[in-house]
Amino acid sequence: MLRRRLLPGLAGAAHVFVVSTANTAAAALPIPSAPGPLLVPRFIGSAATADPIASYPVPQHPHLAPNGRNNMHNDAYATDAYTGPGPLGRAPVVTTRSYGVEECATEAFDAAGRIVALCGNLRGPVLRLINPRTLAIIATKQLPPRNIRPGTSPLSDLCGGTYFYLDDQDRAVVATTDRHVVVIAESLFGFVQRRSYDVSSAVPSTDCLIALMPDWSGRIWFESGNGIVGSIDPDTGRVRFVQLAGEIIDNSFAVDETGGVFIVSDHALYRFDAGPDGTPIVTWRQAYDRGTQLKTGQLAQGSGTTPTLVGPDLVAITDNAEPRMNVLVYQRGKDSGGQPVCGAPVFGEGASATENSLVAVGDSLLVENNYGYKDPTSTLLGATTTPGIAKVDVVDGSCQVAWTSNQVAPTSVPKASLATGLLYVYTKPKTVLADAWYFTAIDIRTGRTVFSKLTGTGPGFNNHYAAVYLGPDGTAYIATLAGMVRIKDSY
What is the pLDDT of residues 57-101, one digit of tens each? Predict the structure, then answer.
């Protein structure tokens, strides 16, 4: 995804941030439901039987926490696929906690299975440590406040408050609104800031940091909204960068073991590699059809996907073509030139757009339609967005649509469980009875909806571009505009 947004400056002093009590009362309350839970089904379908599905084993990045718990998109390849289980619909129990007006859109899991979450509230970004069973807040670090940018809604601004990653030492590496990259560890007393890298020499005050990832050698790569791509030497703090002319970036990125860094702008898909001194070098560039307008359901004109690495040699994105959006697949090798492999149009004419990452399972890609979502008012009073979740198979150099589901997922970042064979999405069917939100499981092989579990009703249950997450024990989590939802099987 989801998604939106030299002389070094390096501060090595440690700062301790103690356990927060400010949200204790809010954390003890559930997300309030609007009227209507008794008017809609609480559970649809039946419990599933796990049917594991094979996929290419994503190599473990040496500088990230274990796959499945290190960043919004699960691993360095941004596959959004877990090797572990998810709920099977066995009398699932829904637990919620309200954090007030706050959404913890990006989550990871530390070695103890606790949730490390980058949240956004009215003041700005905040890092939280959350109990995975009770959803109570354990510790908090308030980050630098949000910068209100003219013409940009705080509800769609990705600057310094959306993407972070958990490194191999269980430290959160976070981009801040004041153009720093901070490294924050856990301690008995809460959070401890270990490092701070100043990248303001590369990113001007009129711009902002969007996303971070390390490459396989340990350099910290960053990208800015106005098309700056840079790297930081983690030992010296030295910053190197390049500027993409006339292009913006609104999504996260993926990296692979060959040194490739895969970034999509609003005009083209790139592979970058580090030069001898660490300066980002454009290895290849492939322009795509960016369409003629910003479609309803997107944050920027162009691809709404983080590049997804497929198997040992492919990378995939969506475009913004008209009348139908396409899933596009390219060669990703250093010497491949990013040669196009295939593409396939998805969803209906004049009604296709996505702002969430593709899911990679084996030689297949799963894509969600977000067309019609403008802001939280798009799902009020029984309204919803355009249906569509599709599976595209890459077979002998051809892209083929295997199935299309009519489930409606306004903005969720879907996730796959290879252990269960299910795709998990957050859905909102159109209804005149209540604004009902469901945790929904779809059979990856067939596209059949297996079950849907009601999480709640009303705007407080809108996930607004946040992802579905699966914890180490198979429990599912979804951040909403008012807190967190937890779904766990009873048996």
Answer: 999 999 999 999 999 999 999 999 999 999 999 999 999 999 999
Q: What's 349's DSSP letter?
A: T
DSSP 205: T
Determine the Cα–Cα distance for residues 127 and 114; give it in Å rounded to an integer. 13
> How far apart are alpha carbons 18 and 3 in whole angstroms?
29
- Cβ-based neighbours of 459, under 8 Å, separated by 6 or more: 34, 376, 379, 380, 435, 481, 482
Structure token digits, residue 473: 């024990």
3-state secondary structure of 283: strand
Is the pTM above the cut of 0.85? Answer: yes
Query: What is the distance between the alpha carbons of residues 161 and 175, in angstroms, rounded to a whole number?
Result: 7
Torsions phi, psi of 377, nearest 5? -70, -15
Report which secondary-structure segment, H or E, holds 25: helix 24-27
The identity of residue 408, as a single letter, is V
* 8-state DSSP, 334: T
Residues 156 and 297 sit within 8 Å (Cβ to Cβ): no
Number of other residues whose CB lies within 10 A of the CB of residue 106:
32
Cβ contact 240:230 at 8 Å: yes
Q: 69: closest CA among 484, 472, 479?
A: 472
Token readout for 14 is: 């440690």
What three-state secondary structure class fits 113? Answer: coil
Question: Is the Cβ–Cβ distance between 241 and 228 less than 8 Å?
Answer: yes
Strands across the sheet with 209-214, in order?
209-214, 220-224, 228-232, 239-243
First vs last Cα of the chain: how many Å apart?
32
DSSP 189: T
Q: What DSSP assignment string belongs to 75-111?
A: STT---EESS-----SS-EEEEEE-SSEEEEEEEE-T
| pLDDT band of 155, cuts 50, 70, 90 | low
Query: What is the total residue count of the chain?
Result: 491
**How far is the C-alpha of 410 from the C-alpha of 407, rounded, in Å?**
10
Strand bridging mode 308-310 / 476-480: unpaired
Instruction: Give the span between the Cα atoms of 137 and 265, in whole angstroms.
Output: 36
Sequence-ordered list of residues with C-beta below 8 angstroms from that of 113, at least 6 positions apart, any chain: 132, 471, 472, 473
Q: How far apart are the C-alpha atoms of 15 and 332, rounded to whole Å? A: 41
For all residues of the chain together, what is the average pLDDT?
92
Residue 24 has pLDDT above 90, yes or no: no
Pairing label, strands 228-232, 239-243? antiparallel
Predicted local confidence at residue 3, as pLDDT: 38
Structure tokens at 345: 């149009």
**DSSP assignment, residue 444?**
T
